[in-house]
Design a protein that fits this description.
The protein has helices at 56-75, 121-128, 133-152, 205-211, 224-240, 250-259, 265-268, 274-283, 294-304, 318-349; strands spanning 9-10, 13-23, 27-35, 41-49, 84-85, 98-100, 109-114, 155-156, 165-167, 179-181, 188-189, 362-363, 379-380. Helix 3 runs antiparallel to helix 5 (224-240), helix 3 runs antiparallel to helix 9 and helix 5 (224-240) runs antiparallel to helix 8. Among the domains are: 10-114, Phosphorylase Kinase, domain 1 (2-Layer Sandwich), CATH 3.30.200.20; 121-304, Orthogonal Bundle (Transferase(Phosphotransferase), domain 1). The relative contact order is 0.10. Helices cover 34% and strands 14% of the residues.
C-alpha cells in the first residue's frame, strides 16, 4: 500500500500522526482527526489493513482478521476493552463499523477506535524496568476483569502481551491507571480453530504446541487458559523487571516454555509478597487445567488490594458523598427515636422491673463509597467487623476438568 503520512485522508478522517509501535503484521494504526456535523473535532485511532501483500491468499487472510476483530469488538462493552466507533460515511443508509477506502492504492479496509493517549505497557516497562506491587496489581486486576468478561462472551484474545495493553491517560495524582486491552485481530471463539500467531514470549505451552503443529487445536479444552498464562507472564515481568525466560530465544525459548520452570519472582524482587508470588506461579503452570481462571484472579486481587483498581476511577457524585456522611447520623437518630418511644411506652404502662441494657461497642459503618477524610460519628454495631490483612493467603483455586493437552517431558511445576 502507498505510504500514509501526516495530512493523508482515510475516509472522512485526516491522519495527524503515525504510531511506530502500531505497525503490525496485518494492519497499521494511525492517530487521526474527525469532525462532527456541528464542526467539533475529535481524535480517533484508525486501523488500516496492509495491502502490500505477496499474493491474494495473504490479502484474504488480512481482510478476514480485520473483519473478525470488528465483529468481536462490536459485541464487547467493557471499560478495559478498547471501544470501536461507527464510521460516519454520508449518503449511506447504515453507518458501518468497517469500510474500504477506494481512493487509496490497494483500497484497504479500515475501522475506527478510541484514541488511547497514555502509551503502552511495553513502553512503561522499557522506561521503568519494573513496577511497584500495588501498581502491578491495579493493572493486572483490571486486565483480569476484561479477560473474565471476554471469556463470558465465548472469546479468547490469544495475543495478550505488553504491546497490546494501552492506557487511556497517564496515571493521575492518585496513581490510578486505566489499562485497556487492544488488538483482537487473532482472537477466536473458544474451542474453534482461529488465526495463528501471538507473541511466543507470552504464549502458553498448549498454544505454542498448536502453532508448531504438535497439537490439534480441538485438543485445547479452554483457550482462555492461555490468556491467563499470558497475563501471568506480564505480571511476572512487571514485578521482577525480567521477561519470562529472558536468557533464551528462538527454539531454546520455545523449549523453555514447554519444559522449564521460571525463576522464582522473589529471587529478583524480595518485596513481592509470598502469596502474590504463589498466584503468579499458578498462572504460569504448564497444565492449563491447573491454572486459576480470570474470575478467580479477580476475586483474589479484590482481597489483596482494595479498589479503585476493580473499576475505572469515577468521581463520586456529591449526593452520594452527602448520603454516605449523613448515614451514621440518620441511624443514630433512628435509634434515639426508638429509645424515646420505648421510654414513653414504659411510662404510660407504669413501673416495671428494669432490664439492664448491655453496653454497645461503637464501630465504623462499612460503605461502598470512599470514606470521608473528616471525622464522622460512629454507629453502634453488635460486634466489630475484623479488617482483612493487607496480603491474605492466596485462596485455593478451583481446578478445571483435565485437558488432554500433551506437554513434552515432565511438568516442572
Amino acid at each position: 500500500m502507498s505510504r500514509i503520512t501526516v495530512s493523508s485522508l482515510v475516509g472522512p478522517y485526516t491522519i495527524t500522526s503515525v504510531f511506530p509501535q502500531g505497525q503490525g503484521g496485518m494492519a497499521r494504526v494511525y492517530r487521526a482527526r474527525g469532525e462532527s456535523r456541528s464542526g467539533v473535532t475529535y481524535d480517533v485511532a484508525l486501523k488500516v489493513m496492509r495491502t502490500d501483500v505477496a499474493d491474494s491468499q495473504e490479502e484474504e487472510f488480512f481482510s478476514a482478521a480485520l473483519h473478525n476483530e470488528v465483529e468481536i469488538l462490536r459485541r464487547l462493552r467493557h471499560p478495559n476493552v478498547v471501544r470501536i466507533y461507527p464510521i460516519p460515511l454520508g449518503g449511506q443508509r447504515a453507518t458501518p463499523f468497517i469500510a474500504r477506502d477506494h481512493d487509496l492504492p490497494g483500497e484497504p479496509w479500515y475501522f475506527v477506535m478510541e484514541y488511547l493517549g497514555g502509551g503502552s505497557l511495553s513502553g512503561i516497562l522499557r522506561r521503568r524496568k519494573r513496577l511497584p506491587v500495588e501498581e502491578t496489581v491495579q493493572i493486572a486486576g483490571q486486565i483480569a476483569t476484561a479477560l473474565d468478561y471476554v471469556r463470558a462472551k465465548g472469546i479468547a484474545h490469544r495475543d495478550v502481551k505488553p504491546d497490546n495493553i494501552l492506557f487511556r491517560a497517564d496515571a493521575g495524582a492518585e496513581g490510578h491507571v486505566e489499562p485497556v486491552l487492544v488488538d483482537f485481530g487473532i482472537a477466536a471463539k473458544l474451542r474453534r480453530i482461529g488465526l495463528p500467531a501471538g507473541s511466543i514470549r507470552y504464549m502458553s505451552p498448549e498454544r505454542l504446541q498448536v502453532v508448531r503443529g504438535e497439537l490439534d487445536p480441538d485438543q485445547v479444552a479452554d483457550e482462555a487458559a492461555g490468556d491467563v498464562y499470558a497475563l501471568g507472564g506480564m505480571v511476572y515481568q512487571m514485578l521482577t523487571g525480567h521477561p519470562l525466560f529472558e536468557e533464551y530465544d528462538g527454539d531454546r525459548l520455545a523449549n523453555a516454555i514447554l519444559e522449564r520452570a521460571p525463576t522464582l519472582p522473589r529471587r529478583y524482587n524480595s518485596e513481592i509478597p509470598p502469596p502474590l508470588e504463589e498466584v503468579v506461579l499458578r498462572m504460569l503452570r504448564k497444565d492449563p487445567s491447573r491454572r486459576p481462571t480470570a474470575e478467580e484472579m479477580v476475586a483474589w486481587m479484590e482481597q489483596t488490594v482494595p479498589p479503585p483498581w476493580a473499576a475505572p476511577a469515577v468521581t463520586p457524585q456529591p449526593p452520594q458523598r452527602r448520603a454516605s456522611s449523613l448515614l451514621p447520623w440518620l441511624l443514630c437518630a433512628a435509634s434515639t427515636a426508638a429509645l424515646i418511644g420505648v421510654l414513653a411506652y414504659n411510662t404510660f404502662r407504669g413501673p416495671a422491673t428494669p432490664t439492664p441494657t448491655p453496653p454497645i461497642a461503637p464501630t465504623a459503618v462499612s460503605t461502598d463509597v470512599e470514606a470521608p477524610e473528616a471525622t464522622e460519628p460512629l454507629v453502634a454495631s453488635p460486634a466489630p467487623i475484623p479488617c482483612p490483612t493487607p496480603i491474605p493467603t492466596a485462596p485455593p483455586m478451583t481446578p478445571r476438568p483435565a485437558t488432554p493437552t500433551p506437554i513434552p517431558k515432565t511438568d516442572t511445576q
